[in-house]
Amino acid sequence: MRKCFLSLVFILSLLFVRGQYSAKNMSSGGALHPLQANMDIRHYTLALHVEPDSQTIRGYCSIEMRLEKPADTILIDLAPFYTITSLTVNDNRSEYHVKSDRIFIVRPGGFNSGKNIVRVDYHGKPPIAEHPPWEGGFTWKKDKSGNPWIVINCQMQGGKIYFPCKDHPSDEPNDGVDLYITVPKGLSVAGPGMLAAVKRATPETSTWHWKTLYPISNYCVLFNIGKYKVYKRNYTTIEGNTVPMEYYILEEDTAHAKQVLDMRARDTRILEKYFGEYPWVKEKIGIAEVPNPGMEHQTMITYANDFKVDTINGQLYSANLYHEFGHEWWANKVTNRDWAHMWIQEGINTYAESLFFLEMGGERAYDSSIGLNKKYIDNETPIVPGEVADTRAVYNGDIYSKGAYFMHSLRFMLGDSVFFPALKKLATDPAFTYNNNIITDDVEKHFSKAAQKNLKPFFDQFLRTTNLFEFTITKLSANQYQIEAVNIPMEIPLEISTSNGIQKINCTAGKFSIASNDFPVIDPRAWYLKKVRSEK
After folding, report:
1. For the packed helices 440-451 and 456-464, what is the interaxial angle rounded to 10 degrees?
2. Mean pLDDT confidence for 95-101
3. Are the beta carbons of 414 and 450 closer than 8 angstroms?
4. Is 369 strand, coil or helix?
5. DSSP 40-109
6. In what helix (H) or strand (E) does residue 167 lie, and over which residues does it extend?
7. What are the pLDDT digits (tens) for 413-430?
8. If 0-12 CB within 10 Å is exposed, 13-18 middle and 19+ buried, where does residue 426 land?
9. Are 119 and 85 in contact (CB under 8 A)?
10. Is the N or C terminus of the chain more exposed, i.e. has fewer CB atoms within 10 Å?
11. Residues contacting 448, CB < 8 A, separation 6+
12. On the CB side of 12, how many CA atoms lie within 13 Å of its CA?
């Protein structure tokens, strides 16, 4: 059979470009290049020496992939801050061309379909994170005792900011990652998965081998370095599995360790109630202290917040600690296939914070949490801008606040008996988890099936437009009012407060009348985002 090769013509003129490239110019995702659509990433092996004094890294990344069909080009991503000293495919040196943050690997005769292993040896000075974790890069700090304290963040820019990879959320390494990180003796490395070994590399350095067998987003393939002390205890999941809890905390802050682990155990139980068993039972529940706001790095979320906590109905609570941990379900287990659908992980996870309030303080506390989200909704652009977007095009506060408010509205639309089981199923069904990344249409179809009605008009209006429900109340007589509903895309349940109490009706676009001795209040519990006008 004749081999089918992807076109190479357009890359023949590519040159190595370093220029004035900046991490603040970088984003992750976007339209998937056809060359990368042909690639299925299976495994990363990343072996790096980290040198705090020079703030440099050196080593290699080995990328195991499967090509769906033969190709004359393999395309990987790496920010142009590094010098490549060797590049091989299947142990053979290969020609390559670099343009901006892309490496085009070419070979006369092409590459066969099936398994291929690309290895890139490189070194360089990673960009310093200017506003972590929102703007990524390395943070090189020292603790109070003068020990190096090194942190990586890369969600906005993608893993390519420091290692060669396929930088797109649609493709996680199915067979996980091995990290071999060599650091000065006396420092610890906190990483994803399980710690396989710590070995002396030289009299002055040690190598930490972290290994995960689960799929993992490339922006979670990272590590943190510090003079850490590790506090451990076991946690028993709702399914009866024992999972180690490990807290990598600076030696100077160990007085806070017990409190943080106590909160972690309680928060895990709450999240398991609504979203199912902790997703990474074969590895660990990990936390690493960092000097900037936390991130959802898989099995080793990061936490700072200066150990400040609030009190909710007598219970200690850290929004930062809870939110980043909730991402173990929403982002790490349930992952959007394209950044255009980032609201799935950020919005639902922000809604999970309101479920903490529901557990701790009942419906009144839940409403206060939802009301706080409402204050931060700008509603200037749709939170799903299309089917394809990079991180900078989609990232704004509304994917958190409006996304959470949408889930609040959906709860009322469906009722608790349908909504909560469907929400848990979304977080536990293999069709939506681990290797099976999802988009907004998948979420809509799932809830439509659970509700036994077509919810697409509701999803589309709330997520793909900035339109709000609109109601105009007109007084007709002493106890009669006309209500006109506009921008109602489908029949919705609606509560109206009247002199006779709360009335619940099924509302569609149009006009209807209602009797009340008092001026009626539309949607008094604020289940929906809406505009209400009154005409005397």
Report:
1. 140
2. 95
3. yes
4. helix
5. EEEEEEEEEEEETTTTEEEEEEEEEEEESS-EEEEEEE--TTEEEEEEEETTEE-EEEEETTEEEEEEEE
6. none
7. 999 999 999 999 999 999
8. buried
9. no
10. N
11. 454, 455, 456
12. 5
In the block, which residue shows the tokens 């290692």? Answer: 163
Count of positions (residues) in the chain: 536
Residue 316: which H helix or E strand, with range?
strand 315-317
- The DSSP result for 319-354, as a single string, is HHHHHHHHTTTBTTTB-BSSGGGTHHHHHHHHHHHH
| Rg of the chain taking only CA atoms, in angstroms | 26
Cβ burial, residue 37 (10 Å; 0-12/13-18/19+): middle
- The answer to whether 357 and 367 have CB atoms below 8 angstroms apart is no
Domains defined for the chain, CATH in brackets: 1-226 (2.60.40.1730), 232-330 (1.10.390.10), 339-464 (1.10.390.10), 469-535 (2.60.40.1910)
What the block records as the tokens of 254 is: 């160990």
Flag whether the pTM goes above 0.90: yes
**What distance in Å separates the CA atoms of residue 58 and residue 163, rounded to the nearest whole number?**
10
Confidence of residue 25 (pLDDT cuts 50, 70, 90): confident
Nearest to 11, CA basis, from 90, 102, 136: 102
∠ CA 136-141-144, nearest 5°, is: 145
Residue 471, classified by CB atoms within 10 Å of its CB into exposed (0-12), middle (13-18) or buried (19+), is buried
pLDDT per residue over 278-299, tens digit each?
A: 999 999 999 999 999 999 999 9
How far is residue 430's CA from residue 433's CA, in Å, rounded to a whole number?
A: 5
Q: Flag whether pLDDT at 7 surpasses 90.
A: no
Give the three-class secondary structure for 279. coil
Query: Can you tell me the distance from the alpha carbon of 384 to that of 440, in angstroms, rounded to the nearest whole number?
Result: 8
Whether the Cβ atoms of residue 103 and residue 164 lie closer than 8 Å to each other: yes
Residue 231 amino acid letter: Y
The rounded distance, in Å, linking the Cα atoms of 302 and 155 is 13
Cis previous bond, 133, omega within 30: yes
Enter the tokens of residue 136: 């990524």
* Residue with tokens 């697409």, as numbered in its chain: 456
Distances (CA, A) of 11 to 32, 38, 74, 184: 17, 17, 11, 41
- Please state, as a whole number, how many other Cβ atoms lie within 10 Å of the Cβ of residue 111: 24
The pair of structure tokens assigned to 101 is: 């943050």
- Residues 6 or more apart from 396 whose CB is under 8 A from it? 378, 381, 383
Q: What is the mean pLDDT of the chain?
A: 94
